[in-house]
Amino acid sequence: MDKFQKFIDLHHKNKQHIMNKKLLTFTGIAVLTGSLLYMNSCVSIPKGAAAVTQFDSNKYLGKWYEIARLDFTFEKNLNNTTADYSLNEDHSIQVVNRGYDYIKKEWKEAIGKAKFTASPDVGRLKVSFFGPFYSGYNVVELDDDYQYALVVGKSPKYCWILSREKTIPDAIKEKYVQKAGEIGVNTDNLVWVKHN
Fold first, then answer.
1. Among 75, 123, 148, 193, which residue's beta carbon has the most beta carbons within 10 A?
2. Residue-wise over 48-62: b if at least 16 C-beta within 10 A, else e?
3. Are 151 and 122 in contact (CB under 8 A)?
4. Domain 57-192 is in which class?
5. What pLDDT digit, counting tens, does each position of 78-124 carry?
6. Domain boundaries, the chain
């Protein structure tokens, strides 16, 4: 009888141990997922930056050439980079980013979706290329004719200077670099994109 009771007790302990491990694993996954969602869905704007007002998304649509950027994983080793914006049926904006990987000698393309974080007449959007994960896309400088734009992400670690042409006038370049520096962008680290 004692041996049988010991066997039953051991069985219950093992069962409880397995259940505890499953619970810990599930809790760990839930916490990790929540943390990733929080970090990657951050659609804030850098301190000291302000998005442009009286923003017209229809004028912003179309093709932009990337003149300069702060490099990060998804654009590493890319030149001839462009962003093409078009309107989706649900009134979100389709984003098609394209660039040439000069190391692998191949074109890369990523298709995403952008939505306004508040009013559509303010240049603050959130962009997603990976399902529910969104990141900030803030237009902080824009000329009246929608030919040149300065965009920052959720922090000053993300910055792009865009143009409708493959080049940008020196005066605009200097103005945007200065503005980027004022909001905390390390402008010494800007990568000046080749379009060749």
1. 123
2. ebebbeebebeebee
3. no
4. mainly beta
5. 999 999 999 999 989 999 999 999 999 999 999 999 999 989 999 99
6. 1-40, 57-192
**The two three-digit tokens of residue 82, written as one number:** 């462009």
Tokens of residue 80, six digits: 């001839």
Q: At which residue do the structure tokens 């491990």 appear? A: 21
